[in-house]
Write a structure and sequence with these properties.
Length: 511
């Protein structure tokens, strides 16, 4: 094979940018982007991306491997930049919109961003970011404001406005030619679930393969209608930013993820697919009256993060959503499918090993290390915190719950439950009621020995519950020795439909 060198006839570097070039031909007149009253076709999106790529090089002097950062919600501009930035040979850095000025300034500084695009609603935050950067005596990136494309405000800040910059580009200028598929296409920063945020580089090859893998594993058919309820800044929208171009899908963009906006988008545009973190289920269920008219419509939903409890999945599927749960890491370029329907929990075991020569653990091993913390070992028995959470979610008073381990003198560790109650139950439910409810509905050794009521559970910038913070809190707790109590009202609506009385309560024991 050494006699047959790579050439155009037998080899092409893999890049998701090619999805757009193909979509402009195969799906030329099909809708590519919908945002309020603004609409584009795939031919138009390709044309605009060519213009922006040209302007990045000729106007902003962006060169190969320069980092271009963007701070924006799910709007057309950030979608276009997923193609235009690599078409200019540069590296896209999508910034989490929920971070504060200090965090974002640190990312811009660490990434050495040459240009910084930002949504018009972030001007105040950008002022603070600039102040942070000036205080560090660093060169400021070129500043480009993105005004609203549907209803422009006319506000100006920075060197250019996005549409002005696009207009300056030449669509006839050939885009950057990718020679090495290992070149960087994106620079992302982890959400800091288990440690400080880390910079993660995605290659063109990795982004291409992840996009194709997800489309195949999720079974995304031709010309889907995809709702952007997942932030595009999160792992590049789990690579569906590029993936939708591969399938000629319509990208329905919404600025704010609310139950009303989700329902309106689904009914108006006949949405077929969406991705989201489990927190979006909570948002929908809080205002589930919006979803009664869905009728026979079925929306495929891919969710990631901690496994959603079965009761929550059952409630969300009754509204017209079919849920597939996945797990993944920012470091692993996207998600891995692991199951669907009413059951939660990890399934398909996929390794993504890196070299162990230098003592580096595999990505999957790292994931296993983290997920093992969801197992509480009490007196030699393994307790799944997810199973305990599922039972607690069935309690009509519980809105959100997270279960972690706390120290126990006798058993080593035992479950501790942190709860957020529904508003109508706040101040009326006692810790003892929740503990006894658990003992009635699961093996007694699995029942939490302590319950902590919270106004809000701690979350990171991506909406994930910060269990490590709860574990730190639980370290200061000790399991109480509970004696017999008088009869207590318990809520067991999922069993009999009526509150029940506990006639005799024994002291809590291991079994």
């Amino acid at each position: 094979m050494d006699r047959f060198p790579k050439c155009g006839a037998n080899y092409a570097p893999l890049s998701p940018v090619t999805f757009l070039q193909r979509a402009a031909t195969v799906y030329s007149d099909r809708t590519s982007i919908i945002y309020e009253s603004a609409r584009f076709t795939w031919s138009q999106t390709h044309h605009r991306c060519l213009r922006l790529a040209s302007a990045l090089r000729s106007v902003l002097n962006i060169k190969k491997n320069d980092v271009v950062s963007v701070l924006a919600p799910n709007i057309p501009a950030i979608y276009e930049m997923h193609f235009a930035v690599p078409m200019a040979g540069a590296v896209l850095n999508t910034v989490n919109t929920r971070l504060n000025a200090n965090n974002i300034a640190a990312i811009l500084l660490h990434s050495e961003a040459k240009a910084f695009f930002f949504d018009y609603q972030s001007i105040k935050l950008v002022h603070e970011i600039i102040h942070e950067l000036i205080s560090k005596k660093t060169t400021l990136p070129r500043l480009i404001l993105i005004d609203d494309i549907d209803t422009p405000t006319g506000v100006r800040f920075g060197e250019f406005e996005y549409e002005e910059l696009v207009a300056r580009g030449d669509p006839r200028e050939p885009p950057h030619v990718l020679e090495d598929e290992w070149d960087a296409i994106a620079l992302n920063y982890t959400s800091g679930t288990t440690s400080a945020p880390k910079g993660v580089v995605y290659s063109h090859r990795g982004a291409y393969l992840s996009s194709m893998s997800l489309l195949l594993q999720w079974g995304v058919g031709n010309e889907p209608v995809y709702l952007w309820s997942l932030p595009m800044f999160h792992c590049n929208g789990w690579t569906f930013t590029w993936g939708m171009a591969a399938r000629g899908g319509a990208n329905v963009c919404i600025r704010n993820t609310t139950a009303e906006n989700i329902h309106r988008a689904i009914t108006q545009h006949k949405v077929t697919h969406m991705c989201c973190a489990p927190i979006v289920f909570t948002i929908i269920l809080k205002d589930d009256h919006w979803f009664q008219p869905l009728g026979n419509m079925m929306v495929e939903v891919l969710t990631g993060g901690a496994p959603p409890p079965a009761p929550l999945l059952q409630r969300i599927e009754r509204l017209g959503f079919h849920v597939t749960h996945a797990y993944g890491l920012t470091e692993a370029t996207g998600q891995r499918r692991s199951g669907s329907g009413g059951a939660s929990g990890a399934g398909c075991r996929k390794t993504n090993k890196r070299s162990s020569k230098h003592g580096k653990a595999s990505v999957f091993s790292h994931w296993q290390t983290l997920m093992s913390k969801d197992v509480i070992i009490s007196g030699g028995e393994n307790i799944s915190s997810v199973e305990v959470e599922e039972v607690l979610y069935r309690n009509p008073a519980v809105e959100e719950v997270a279960v972690v381990a706390m120290p126990d003198v006798h058993w080593g560790e035992t479950p501790c439950a942190f709860l957020k109650l529904k508003k109508e139950f706040e101040g009326t439910v006692k810790e003892e009621e929740i503990v006894l409810y658990c003992r009635e509905n699961m093996s007694k050794f699995m029942a939490p020995k302590k319950v902590v009521f919270m106004d809000e559970l701690p979350r990171n910038a991506n909406g994930k519950i910060q269990k490590f913070e709860l574990r730190d809190m639980a370290k200061s707790f000790r399991a109480p020795a509970m004696a017999a109590r008088p009869p207590t009202r318990m809520m067991n609506k999922h069993r009999s439909g009526e509150p029940q009385m506990e006639h005799q309560v024994m002291a809590l024991s291991r079994l």
